[in-house]
Amino acid sequence: MRHPRTRRDSRGVFLTLEGPEGSGKSTQMLHLGTVLRKAGYSVLHTREPGGTKMAEAIRETMLSAASKEPVVPETEALLVLAARSQHVAHLIRPALARGSIVLCDRFADSTFAYQGFGRGLSLSWLQHANRTATGGLTPHLTVLLDVPVSIGLARRRRARGQQNRLDRESTSFHQRVRQGFLTLASRTPRRIKVVNANRPVEVVRAEIEGLVLGWLRTRERRAGAR
Ligand code: ATM
């Protein structure tokens, strides 16, 4: 199965949530999914790396801290891209074709932030490889939850038992990742909306909800006017 060459599926809506460690992304994803379903949308909630059986197996390999064998940055990038290729072909594109909202916890911006800005791999190579893996599929809207590294890592450590291989990277790595996300947002401000996640969870929740529902209504109004 090859990826079609279309940039976006015209029926469904592809929304992603991004952010560094401890930004509260997973909690906010669950809430947003509930809000969208209550508003009458059909929602597919998924995550990266992961989403299909094979992609989840790749996630386990990539994030496991069990092996003592150091992971080469290129290997890490190719693993997330392999997982993404399966995910896009077997889960995301079919859901978009059915007209669903696909709500995805991380996508290509994480590859640019972690493997590009964090690990120092070439962004143009990553963009090219990502296009090959996805057939050019790009989210319609991305919410970036931003939080200072010290706060994010402390939150993550408190959530005991959840530390993976990347959580254990140096503070400077996580700083580069955070700055990387903010750089991506400043380059594509129409798609990537930054939300300050260093506030009480319900304040952040309300902002995300307003932002996404407002964006969907504007899109529907425009589609109706055509
Ligand atoms: P979550 O903890 O948000 O499920 O993400 C899993 C990890 O995968 C996350 N790091 N930590 N800790 C970021 C990492 N990741 C990448 O490095 N590149 C990618 O392209 C994706 C999608 C995730």
Secondary structural class: alpha/beta
Strand content is 5-15%
Specify the CATH class.
Alpha Beta
Helix content: 55-70%
Q: Can you tell me the number of structural domains?
A: 1
- How large is the radius of gyration? 17 Å
The neighbouring-strand order within the major sheet is: 2-3-1-4-5
**Based on CA inertia axes, which overall geometry fits?**
globular
Number of helices: 8
Q: What is the average of the pLDDT values?
A: 92
Contiguous uncertain segments of 5+ residues: 5-9
CATH topology: Rossmann fold
Compute the number of strand runs: 5
Bound molecules: 3'-azido-3'-deoxythymidine-5'-monophosphate
Taking the sheet with the most strands, its summary is: 5 strands, parallel
**Element order, helices and strands?**
EHEHHEHHEHHEH
Based on the coordinates given, report the CATH architecture.
3-Layer(aba) Sandwich
